[in-house]
Amino acid sequence: MIIAIPEALRERLGPEGAQALAELLNEARVQTRGDVIEIAASRFERQLAETIGGLRAEMHREIGGLRAELHSEIGGLRAEMGSKMGALEARIIRCRRAARNTLRLFPPLTAGRRSVTSPPAIPTTTVSSWVASRTGSRT
Questions:
Q1: 92 and 129 in contact (C-beta within 8 Å)?
Q2: Torsion region of 107: left, alpha or beta (phi above 0 gives left; psi -120 to 50 gives alpha)
């Protein structure tokens, strides 16, 4: 950049002095511009690091909250499934008893036919133990 030096100053400094002053001012401007850019970049990097740190902390809090919520939901589902399994087991037991009582009402057939004495045995395992035997887990 060329700086226009006023005529009065140029007359006092002379052509070489005016030229030297213009170069000095141009170099100072370039140096100042570089310093300003360096300071701005340093501030930007610091602010960026602070912002990233804040975002990381917020993400950790949010993820922790989501994990806690997920664990809570899973616990609720397990409790609900346990309740439903218990109700289902109770219903199966009632149905077995009703089936046994119904079968007792009918005497075995023995008049010249093959004897039918009792129905096949109904297993006494519970639903949860049956599921556990199939999946390999224990409840």
A1: no
A2: beta
